[in-house]
Specification:
Blueprint (H helix, E strand, L loop, with lengths): L4 H13 L19 H24 L1 H5 L3
Length: 69
């Protein structure tokens, strides 16, 4: 590394330090309706059926997929 490298790097990063950082103003409110037990049960069951069941099927039949026929 030459003696000019720190000066060049400082010149490249200097203007970026002076830029203002924009922050999002996110405020949440309480939910209008509370979720019931049945809503949570239906949601978790549908997630299980849509995502985990096909993956489990593929993993349990992996040997069948590996066979060349």
């Amino acid at each position: 590394m030459s003696a000019l490298t720190p000066l060049l790097l400082r010149g490249l990063t200097g203007p970026a330090r002076r830029l203002p950082v924009q922050r999002a103003q996110v405020h949440s409110k309480p939910p209008q309706e509370q979720l019931g037990t049945m809503d949570v049960t239906v949601g978790l069951t549908s997630c299980f059926l849509c995502f985990l069941l096909p993956a489990g099927w593929i993993l349990s039949h992996l040997d069948d997929y590996k066979k060349r026929e």
